[in-house]
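dude i think i finally got it to work??
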Amino acid sequence: MTNLLIFGLGYTAKRIAEEMRTRGWQVDATGSAGSVAFADRDAVKAALERASHVLSSVPPDRKAGLDPVMDSYGRDFGNAWYGYLSSTGVYGDQQGAWVDESTPTIAETGAGRRNARAEADALWMKLDARVFRLPGIYGPGRSALDRVRDGRARRIDMPDQVFSRVHVDDIVSGVVASLTSDAPAGAYNLADDLPASGNAVTEHACQLLGSEPPPLESLEEANLSEMARGFYAENRRVANGKAKRVLGWQPEYPTYVEGIQSLL
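look at this
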């Protein structure tokens, strides 16, 4: 039986685990819903000995900037296939320009810089690593529809700002395509086909729900969290052509329109 060990059984990784189990894989995982305690070194090393494939969705430590998985267990991976769920934040601010996997990772601050360092650590310690760079993730329970219903939706007055995003199910299909094929190591952008402003997505969700869009606010008036402000500090469009060519990946939800409709 093929065995997958997942470090960090969060929102996205849970769905990857479920899909691989339906395919007959044995899946171990760390995290609150996992079967292995990350701090139990003996249990983790035993799981690594069983694992033919290892996937990490654990973000780098905010203070030290280190990847806790690679720092604690990277030397114990052996010959296992290794994948890492990273972020398109590694590209930094590109002033709305398109980026692909050949674009230098210029992020200098915050999560983008930490992810870039984690990617470098993974590729240094594990030269056949697969790195999946993810933009804004949405899906069941985590979408513009939920924000509109809960009164948390905002519209920020930044007319030229665009984001890329991806439905969680399309992340699953991209990672599974790599897990189950001989796809080469390297970075893969898993993003939809239509970068768009956050306002456009919010307005579409309001239209579907029959709600009035929230008023436009300046970034200062919106009083956003640090993470949310980080989205607005950067402006880029993420190309997904490599994942389509190499992995044979096709997003089920190529734009936010199909994705939000599926969640309605």
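The chain has a mean pLDDT of 92.
im so relieved honestly
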